[in-house]
Task: structure prediction
Amino acid sequence: MRKGRIILAAVLAIVVLAAAGGVAWERGLFDRGGKANETALDVAPPEGLDLPAPRPPKPVLDATDGPRVSDAALRDQVAPLLGDRDLGSHVGFAAYDLTHGRRLWSSGGGEQYIPASTLKLLTSVAALESIGGDQVFTTSTALRPARGKQPPRVVLVGGGDPLLSSLSTKAAAKEYPQPATLDELAEETAAALDDQGIRRVSLGYDVSRYTGPSDNPTWESDYIPEEVPPISPLWVDEGIDPANPILRVTDPARQATEVFGADLADRGIKVVGQPTQATVGTGHRLGAVDSAPLRELVGYILDNSDNAGAEILLREVAVAMDRPASFAGGVAAVRQVLTRVGVPMARVKMFDGSGLSRSNRVTLEAMLAVLRIASDQRHPELRDVVSRLPVAGYSGTLAYRFLDDRSDAGLGVVRAKTGTLSHVHGMAGTVVDRDGVAVAFVALVDRVPLIDTLDARQILDDIAAAVAECGCSRRAR
Result:
């Protein structure tokens, strides 16, 4: 028995020492005398150590430097698909050789089309250009002093974070993009209140960042609450109704404040009364949490075709351009920014940022220009618009597309934004063809019989795959 206890004690000692050593290693305490702010990479190599020179890195993808695309060959590949009756009577296609900087064959180029969610490309480019990809959106709390018998008021201030979350801080750390959470904000706020000896508060919410109607008059009557919540600079979980996740709440700012109040109560702060709309005024800031950077938000919005997030971007472009943060102000700001970077906007009509409105109209030229400019090496700040698009057969709204024999040539090489409303379907993005040429393309149809909905979507996949499979230098002159 004694020998067994000695062995057990020795094993436990080894385990404890190993755990302690692991913690010390993780914190960098074995590096340069145990300084926690330094790592092994900071240590100079010992004298006399002769290491070979590092090998130059190899590219993971081939350069897009193939031969010029032949218009005639591209037309032969795509035109038969455009003539399919399942696409309806209003069909447009355009392409641009990104590798060589030249416009390619197109069909229906003089028309205007309902873009549906492909409009998010315009909104996203305008957001990155006017705001910057590193920008974050801050949700904060401020304290207004007690009045009479009323307790001090904590005001939750909306800062335009489209992905503010009700997840715990620990759970949110596993998400991408990693969202700011009301849980973390409540932790900061409760600590600040404790420091001031405050244990009892009322709640308010400040949504003054945005103005104008929260519902778009050109939307279908059921889009709120079935597609988006009323547009607000403050919501949690994009305004999804916790009692019915297929719907959105009708007062997202109030609901976010109620969730925040419950988080405060969990930390011992008594919340009295119901939350009401308020303004911060000269209130003292208590806490703040930042969203993911804009470039990550843009990637999420494009990948998931997030209508609510796109409407937030529209208003944030207006804020950046010093215009009223409303539907009208956002549209005017987006037009201003896109015109400045070279998108032909003369025949484009915009009424929102998401593409939900059937009153929106775009031209193939404008859509193609957005893709061309975002792909241009002279505009690296816009690159996220094309690099974060859904990938055919793998991610986002293209995860379950390109699955038959006719379209599988596009798998993994087509990156595109889809657009879908009843009777309306679109796809706009980039592809590297079989010859190694980068091509931007747009395909829009907006008079599709409902019975042909799935067939029309499949044909759009086939069109993109035809561009990928083209090898269209074969008839180049």
Notes: The chain has two domains: 71-133+296-469, 138-292. Confidence is low (pLDDT under 50) at residues 10-34. The chain is about 35% helix and 15% strand.
